[in-house]
């Protein structure tokens, strides 16, 4: 009886183990089938992606014998013809990077709009001083969408424009600052209107910069309104809303302080570009001097380089206020001076001006070396000319001496012949 119970218990345990093993094997079989199915789908997707990208890359590289690699690296682990470097830059890679950059810029602009940020743009206009009175008269006589507004009495170097037609709230914040020194700052002005203003000013100012140079040296920042105070936090300007000021009729002095610094940085950027061109023209001279050769520069070219250096020095140090604070802030507006200095230091205007002066000193030293070498060359040429003239004079003296000697010999021969004739006549006479 006991043995029967033991056998029955063993049979039950064996049946349980068998059912567990069958269940586990079924689960493992289903899992393996699912894994195989997913791997087949992944493989087919990889093959499909690779075929599509192969056709794209073949169309891109059509006519180009260089190898082209699919930028998504979908060919990894697959049989390919030859080994190709995955780091090769392709046209599709460049296109994707450009699209990614454009997408990031759009997302950034959306974020600015969401956060309530607006943009301020600064442009250089001309190297000359702008006649603001004449420009004000022209704007008042023509049908434009902007009007001239009133400014403070001590803001003589500024022409302030606001939107003439107020349709929405955005039109109330459109402001244009035109500085006499030759620059313009636009607050919350759309791109089409900025281009129209630049085209208008390009026709009515003297010796304007080219549009390529104007757009190349533009500077822009984000800004937002604040109810408490005006300041600079990071790269964002916060402008205090002054309740006693109607922005469509008069000027916000806080914006003027920030605009003054932005106007100076774009003018400095133009001079930095001019200095870069000057350095590029001087660079071959350094290589020639390093080889201990004479620099083939004419006197006119050296004078032109000297003139460019003096012009840059004059514009930066004498004809602008880059090295000192404008008188407008010294007299009355010390609070505005703090805002001006804050953005002035943020844009590194003082340091950039100092670096430019040091570079100009070096360029001037190089040109002085070339000028001295050219002067030495001219001195050598003059010495050679003088030596040649002396040699010519000596030759003429020798010829003159030889001629006199020949003349003296001929005279002596004539005298001798005359003497002989006279002697002969005397001898023949008495006979």
Ordered list of secondary-structure elements with their pairings:
Elements lengths: L1 H59 L30 H25 L2 E7 L7 H10 L4 E3 L9 E6 L5 H4 L2 E5 L3 E5 L3 H14 L6 H6 L2 E8 L4 E3 L2 E5 L12 H38 L8 H20 L8 H5 L2 H13 L2 H80 L3
Parallel strand pairs: 6-8
Antiparallel strand pairs: 1-5, 1-6, 2-3, 3-4, 4-5, 7-8
Helix pairs in contact: 7-8, 7-10, 7-11, 8-11
Pfam family, one: DUF155
GO biological process, one term: positive regulation of mitochondrial translation
Protein name: RMND1
Characterization of this structure:
The protein is of the alpha+beta class. 64% of the residues lie in helices and 10% in strands. Strands 2-3-4-5-1-6-8-7 form an 8-stranded mixed beta sheet, sandwiched between helices. Helix 8 (299-318) runs antiparallel to helix 11. It is elongated.
